[in-house]
Amino acid sequence: MSKNSTFKSTVLIIEDKESMANMLGQTIGAEGYKTLIARDGSDGIRLVNDERVDLVITDLKLPGKDGLDVLRAVKEKNPLIPVILMTAFGSIETAVAAMKEGAYEFLTKPFDTDHLLVLIKRALENQKIITENILLKEEFGRELGFPKIIGKSQALEDVSRNIQKVAPAKTTVLLLGESGTGKELFARALHHLSQRKDSPFVAINCAAIPRELLESELFGHEKGAFTGADYRRIGKFELADKGTIFLDEIGEMDLSLQAKLLRILQGDAIERVGGTRPIHIDVRVVAASNRDLEKAVLEKRFREDLYYRVSVFPITIPPLKERKEDIHLLVNHFINYYCEEMKTETKEIAPETLEILINHTWKGNVRELENCIERAVILCNGKTILPEHIGLATLETTEGLLHDIPMEGGLEEVSNAAQRIAESRLIKKVLAQVGGNKTKAAEILKVSYKTLLTKIKDYGI
């Protein structure tokens, strides 16, 4: 995408008097804003259509098209762009008309430039809030703050280190990993650590939206672009301007749409569906997939040129089975989170329950673990989460054994290995239940104290 701008926002000034236009340009530019200047309404409308503009200040009386014409053109292009009208011939009727047309404010000349600067700042902040509210509605009120990544495994530290390295750059990042590993969480962390953190983070799941609607979701559409397009829609790329767009499950995108995405990644402009003019944007793209994209390229299901464009900096998120040392930390985090959310007393995890969780295969990764703990907090009436609360005990007895038993050698050899694994786990479980009291454990296991000690030593417990 385009290079990061050193300016806060772009302000378009439309004023036919040269001295006034230059004064406003210098005053507003001194505050760190990028300024564009037009001397008439037609030129101003052209700049609105051709350039990325965040706010418009326009005189009401202009050669050719007047300020109200400019206002209508701006709102037609993007209703989120604030417009401040100014005139030396102010009247209540004109002000009311302007506000009804969508003007942010109406100023009568002469005015205090400090007041104008306050209005500009307030208007841009209001624009940001409105944009975020649109995103919040579409994300069902999910908090957009900095994500909390739980874990201390080496695999997770390697990922975090790469995220920190690439975050300040404008480089396109491809996050790879199994479903449920937290790719969006890492995408949000990348955004938060970048210079774009104060701008929107927009996430869209390419697999969750029908192919015929995805183009409109991404790039927006003009009124009348297709049947049912009764109004202009602003797409996710425009909403993410100056921020980050997260394209989850990019491998599910239709080939024709992949071609359009490639053109955008090679430039800095989009076109709405049914539109004829390019819309300049500054967006960082982070993509993600749980599919083997290289294989998809070979099978002609994913464009090779797009693959090389999005995989400039690939990062693979490790599955939970490769970071088992993080499971205890994740379990405690989710227990505390859901106890607080459900306003119930804080619970603890029983040792035997934790052992089951650590040995589980977690095909759904962190998402599956979180769902399991949420269910357990609901089912647990006491202070301790037991195996029956997580619903994995029976399943894990089989899965865990099969996973650890060596499937080589003779039947007797395999049988002995299975016995050792089963006995070791049972002894650990009973010792945890009796607080390490070996006498009580021997009674429960129905073996002599000496036999128990021998097995504890033999199994390295």
Q: Can you give keywords for this protein?
A:
five-stranded parallel beta sheet; disordered N terminus; alpha/beta; single chain; 12% strand; 461 residues
What features would you describe in this structure?
The protein has 461 residues and is α/β, with parallel strands linked by helices. It has helices spanning 18-29, 41-50, 67-77, 92-100, 113-138, 154-166, 183-192, 211-219, 236-239, 255-266, 293-298, 304-310, 327-341, 351-359, 365-379, 387-390, 393-404, 411-433, 438-445, 449-458; strands at residues 10-14, 34-38, 55-59, 83-87, 105-108, 173-176, 201-205, 244-248, 269-270, 279-280, 284-289, 313-316, 348-349, 384-385. Strands 2-1-3-4-5 form a 5-stranded parallel β-sheet, with helices on both faces. Strands 7-8-11-6-12 form a 5-stranded parallel β-sheet. The protein has a two-stranded antiparallel ribbon with strand order 9-10. Strand 3, helix 3 (67-77) and strand 4 (83-87) form a beta-alpha-beta unit. Helix 10 (255-266) packs across helix 12 and helix 19 crosses helix 20. The longest helix is centred in the first third of the chain and has 26 residues, at 113-138. The model is unreliable at 1-6, 138-146 and 393-401 (pLDDT under 50).
